[in-house]
């Protein structure tokens, strides 16, 4: 990883990125609310599709608990838009094309798959508390049941 993951209790780095509609989304606009920030490697790939669908399926439960759910990858706004339309995703999907937010949150780094080494996003979810600090971190996320685990953590805040 370029940086290490943020620790529980650390202030969440501010960001301002375009969503799948091209609208700017800033962390500060959600002050006082829990924010689920899930980083995923690539739009329209199997694991990322399952994860985004799971968060969308539970979006009403997250909203009932007062939380905002936001996905982030390095995909372009157009790719995020196509992904959201094709999969009928209701969560905001942010385009971090430059990778600065991925680096700020420590999720961009070296990965290995099938014997090859490459740079990419490590599937990671942060729960940012209403106070703007990291409340919980899930790294090396396994998609099955992940949205349920995050929802339980939001409800426990």
Q: How does this model look, in words?
A:
The protein has 157 residues and is of the alpha/beta class. It is 29% helix and 27% strand. It has helices at 46-57, 59-64, 77-87, 100-104, 146-156, and strands spanning 16-18, 24-26, 35-39, 68-73, 92-95, 108-113, 116-121, 124-128, 134-138. The strands form three sheets. Strands 5-4-3-8-9 form a five-stranded mixed sheet. A two-stranded antiparallel sheet has the order 1-2. A hairpin with a 5-residue loop joins strand 8 (124-128) and strand 9.
The assigned CATH architecture is 3-Layer(aba) Sandwich
**Considering the protein shown, what is the CATH homologous superfamily?**
Glutaredoxin
Structural class: alpha/beta
Total domain units: 1
Report the major sheet.
5 strands, mixed
How far apart the termini lie comes to 29 Å
- Describe the global form: globular
Provide the succession of SSEs: EEEHHEHEHEEEEH
The first-level CATH class name = Alpha Beta
Total count of helical runs of at least 4 residues: 5
Q: In what order do the strands lie side by side in the largest sheet?
A: 5-4-3-8-9
- The number of distinct β-strands equals 9
Give the strand content.
25-35%
Mean pLDDT: 94
CATH-derived topology: Glutaredoxin
Helix content: 25-40%
C-alpha Rg (nearest Å): 14 Å
Q: Low-confidence stretches at least 5 residues in length (pLDDT < 50)?
A: none
